[in-house]
Write a sequence for this structure.
């Protein structure tokens, strides 16, 4: 192979294996969407409608960079510099301090109104000023906010394009990582007659604000990113507390591990039905109609965990913390001691008060503060009131996935429509994502409504597959086996009545058995008494017979003796009188 051809191949291989250099934005969650950050030394176009967060995101890119030791310049074509500082202060950003330290420079480049109609105008002078400041500061980052306000000075679209080409080349030559913001028409992913900007920029990001069921949601979509992979879905974000927060959908991957250890649900009967205590780091779903006892189970779990010196965050979408505490006193669950100990933190939100992304951020913020072992959400089905069924699904999936990744056990309650609905045990189709599903339902027997409990699934456990009667008493919850007879399933008073009938039947049979045993004993005793009487009579007869036999033997012996005596006496007489005639 020729040497020059070999060198060319080696050069091609080196180029193909080189990864695009990126600059981390430092914005919460955005670098995950961008798979590392913005393209270093290149231009990124950030476009969106009013209120979508373009200026805030561009400014935070500079602010976070300055905090990391990378100086930046913010060029504003629309707002005054003092207004930019004031707006930043509402997020806790002290821009003046960064400006004083030489880490940030805000350049107010708003054109005077009379400049719109006078002579020829070139942005070269403006760019020269910015370039000089960048070299002096050794700037690494640049933001040009509202470039469309600068371009409106031109009435010729061809001239606009020429100037923007000059701008793009200038950014590449300057070598700073840049963000250019531009307005777009609502409902479009382009910047109107500046469509060619999408082709110029190496990275194009669209921001949009949607209103669904009266709930506003900000969304970010990466349109393109030359030389890099990126999160291709729409990613919701919020502007809250100290800046922009992303919890990207692309981060909801199934790469969490298995946690060791178990945690009791707080009731021995429930643990037995579930096939044992819950595995830590898993998700438990307790679903059922209103009033079936979902919150009671959740609070039982929370109280038991806190008494084991574990920490719990309880998110209530249904009632305030005080109301929850007061209601739980009825079934004998006093949460006040564990709240006072600091192990249980109850946070309450109205679902309609904010979008799902704000609620997600607030929950995760509480998790970061308390570092809990368990998180309870009561009820996850209320997330539908944050926008739509799909919004609720996305919210639940992101929350559970994040909690699983950090090893936190999650218990969700879900309220179902109707009294005996079991078609969707979660209400928002997340039951397949849960590791354990506990379903509560009502049953009508004899004009009486009673609760029933069934373990739908418990991954990795030999759980019960039978319905159990679930009873809420003043001493807490109780699990009872239900009665299944010829008439079907019996619960409540019907079961108690049937159990009483069975007890009476058992008692009656036991009495009958005792009576029969006593009767048999009498007969046995009578028979044994007769046997003894007969045995005595037989013995008496045997004794009489034996006496007769003895008398008979004595008689025979005496007779034989007398016979021998007579024989002896005759023999003696013959010897004395030999002439006596013979006898006979």
């Amino acid at each position: 192979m020729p040497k020059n051809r070999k060198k060319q191949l080696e050069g091609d291989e080196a180029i193909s294996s080189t990864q695009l250099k990126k600059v981390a934005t430092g914005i919460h969650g955005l670098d995950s969407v961008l798979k590392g950050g913005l393209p270093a030394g290149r231009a990124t176009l950030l476009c969106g409608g009013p209120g979508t967060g373009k200026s805030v995101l561009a400014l935070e890119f500079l602010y976070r960079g300055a905090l990391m030791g990378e100086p930046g310049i913010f060029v504003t074509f629309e707002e005054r510099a003092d207004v930019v500082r004031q707006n930043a202060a509402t997020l806790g950003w002290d821009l003046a301090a960064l400006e004083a330290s030489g880490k940030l420079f805000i350049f107010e480049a708003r054109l005077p109104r009379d400049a719109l109609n006078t002579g020829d105008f070139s942005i070269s002078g403006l760019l020269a000023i910015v370039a000089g400041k960048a070299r002096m500061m050794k700037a690494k980052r640049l933001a040009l906010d509202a470039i469309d306000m600068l371009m409106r000075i031109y009435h010729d679209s061809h001239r606009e394009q020429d100037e923007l080409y000059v701008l793009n080349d200038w950014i590449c030559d300057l070598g700073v990582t840049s963000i250019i913001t531009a307005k777009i028409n609502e409902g479009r992913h382009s910047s109107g007659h500046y469509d060619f900007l999408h082709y110029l920029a190496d990275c194009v990001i669209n921001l949009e604000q949607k209103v669904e069921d009266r709930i506003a949601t900000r969304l970010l979509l990466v349109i393109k990113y030359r030389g890099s992979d990126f999160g291709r879905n729409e990613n919701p974000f919020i502007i809250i507390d100290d800046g922009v927060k992303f919890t990207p959908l692309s981060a909801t991957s199934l790469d969490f591990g298995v946690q060791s250890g178990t945690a009791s649900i707080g009731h021995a009967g429930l643990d037995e039905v579930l096939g044992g205590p819950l595995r830590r780091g898993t998700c438990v779903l307790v679903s059922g109609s209103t009033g079936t006892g979902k919150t009671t189970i959740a609070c039982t779990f929370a109280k038991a965990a806190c008494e084991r010196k574990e920490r719990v965050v309880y998110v209530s979408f249904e009632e305030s913390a005080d109301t929850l505490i007061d209601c739980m006193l009825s079934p004998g669950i006093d949460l006040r001691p564990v709240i006072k100990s600091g192990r249980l933190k109850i946070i309450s939100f109205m679902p309609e008060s904010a979008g799902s992304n704000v609620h997600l951020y607030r929950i995760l913020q509480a998790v970061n503060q308390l570092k809990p072992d368990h998180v309870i959400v009561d009820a996850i089905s209320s997330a539908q009131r944050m926008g739509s069924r799909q919004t609720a699904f996305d919210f639940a999936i992101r929350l559970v996935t994040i909690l699983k990744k950090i090893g936190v056990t999650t218990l969700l309650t879900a309220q179902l429509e109707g009294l005996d609905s079991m078609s969707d045990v979660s209400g928002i189709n997340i039951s397949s994502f849960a590791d354990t599903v506990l379903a509560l339902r009502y049953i009508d027997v004899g004009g009486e409504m009673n609760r029933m409990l069934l373990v739908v699934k418990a991954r990795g456990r030999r759980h019960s597959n039978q319905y159990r009667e679930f009873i809420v008493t003043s001493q807490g919850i109780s699990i009872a086996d239900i009665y299944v007879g010829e008439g079907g399933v019996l619960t409540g008073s019907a079961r108690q009545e049937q159990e009483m009938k069975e007890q009476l039947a058992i008692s009656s049979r036991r009495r009958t058995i005792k009576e029969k045993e006593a009767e048999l004993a009498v007969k046995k005793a009578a028979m044994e008494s007769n046997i003894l009487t007969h045995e005595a009579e037989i013995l008496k007869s045997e004794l009489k017979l034996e006496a007769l036999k003895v008398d008979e033997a004595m008689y025979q012996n005496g007779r034989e003796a007398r016979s021998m005596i007579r024989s002896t006496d005759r023999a003696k007489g013959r010897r004395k009188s030999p002439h006596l005639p013979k006898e006979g």
Remarks:
- Confidence is low (pLDDT under 50) at residues 4-17.
